[in-house]
Design goal:
Largest sheet: 4 strands, mixed
CATH topology of one domain: 60s Ribosomal Protein L30, Chain: A
Strand content: 5-15%
Length: 226
Amino acid sequence: MTLRTSVKIVLMAAAVAGLSACASAPADQGPSTTASTETQQWMDKIKVTSAPDEIVLAPHATGLSANQSAALEGLHQRWLQAESRELVVTAPNSAGLMSTQIRDRLIGLGAPGARVRVVGFNPVGPDDNTIRVGFLRYQAEKLKCGEAWENLTATRNNTAYGNFGCAMAANLAAQVANPEDLIRPRDMTPADTGRRDRVTGLYRKGEVTSTAKDEQATGSISKAIP
């Protein structure tokens, strides 16, 4: 074995050892706690609270009254404006027929059936013999910016001043349509199974899967005489 070959073997062994060391880092090394920027830190300070928006209905043996139906319509409109997730009907088990009518009424107003949930319970007192229909409404609390200003000319450490990013976060909290979006992402919409089945069928037949060309969307240059 020549000296050059021995050097190559030693270098290869060192490289393999280095890669294995990188792959087997200690388990206690988690993500860096200083990864957030100053702007992201202000975003984390936005506090989102929730409160129920609900109506209380008295059960009737004859079903929904005209006033109750109108109240459900108003609740449905507020639910649409709030872009909330689901409507919950909490009713005594003895009012099963009326709770079904309430659910059908909400679906008739346009609420998807999968987002109208009925919860039954056994009342323990005379005050529990009511039906509650509502949803959770979220609200982002205002941020207070500009309370502590430091010397903005002292930039020797190249660090952002304390209020940096607060105004942007405060504007976002005031303008967001649904503050729940600041807590978690929304659910995915159902897939377009009709379009998917058609494209899959064309693909299996070996045919073109793209949409037909729109002749009105051509990029031809106008032939008008200047």
